[in-house]
Amino acid sequence: MTITQATALRLRWNMRADLSTDCAHRNLELEWDDLGHSTGHYTCIICGEPVAHKPQTSSRDAHLTST
């Protein structure tokens, strides 16, 4: 899902008639910018809210764990 798509979902979610129900964020998708790079955020595909952030590993950390 792109950042633009997530924004559109958030707007649509906030415009719904029944605002008393909260989203359970059960379906997440990795978010991408318009250039195709991952933002590292997992976004709910129902309401568009960024829910989790993927931890970034440095190349040094990746090297240490692979040896």
Question: What labels describe this entry?
Answer:
single chain; 67 residues; alpha+beta; three-stranded antiparallel β-sheet; 2 helices; flat
Task: Indicate the overall shape.
Answer: flat
The percent range for strand residues is: 15-25%
Q: Can you give the helix content as a percent range?
A: 25-40%
Structural class: alpha+beta
- How do the SSEs run, as a string of H and E? HEEEH
Strand order of the largest sheet: 1-2-3
Query: For the residues shown, what is the average pLDDT?
Result: 83
Number of β-strand runs:
3
Rg computed from alpha carbons, rounded to a whole number of angstroms: 15 Å
Number of domains: 1
In terms of per-residue confidence, which ranges show pLDDT below 50 for 5 or more consecutive residues?
none
- Distance, first to last CA: 34 Å
Contiguous helical run count: 2
Largest sheet: 3 strands, antiparallel
Give the helix/strand layout:
Layout: H1 3-14, E1 28-32, E2 38-44, E3 50-53, H2 59-66
Antiparallel strand pairs: 1-2, 2-3
Account of the 3D structure:
By secondary structure, this protein is α+β, with helices and mostly antiparallel strands. It has one domain (3-66). 30% of the residues lie in helices and 24% in strands. It contains 2 helices and 3 strands. Strands 1-2-3 form a 3-stranded antiparallel sheet, with no helix packed on it. The model has no long low-confidence stretch (mean pLDDT 83).
